[in-house]
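In line with agreed milestones, the collection of sequences with tokenised folds has grown. A representative record is reproduced below.
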Amino acid sequence: SLKHNPNGRFVVVCGDGEYIIYTALAWRNRSFGSALEFVWSSEGEYAVRESTSRIKIFNKNFQ
């Protein structure tokens, strides 16, 4: 799947158990990891579901 973050500066590609966050204009890699699902918050933070029992939440600085 392909999803833009709320301010439009970043885009995430999620599939095959992985996600990669790119800058929207230059398509530079900003972050990546394993994920079954990916969601953006309205403030720009994001969360990934790594398994049926594990969810990770990240801040705007990709940490």
About this structure: Strands lie at 2-4, 10-15, 18-23, 29-34, 37-40, 46-51, 54-58. The chain has a mean pLDDT of 95.
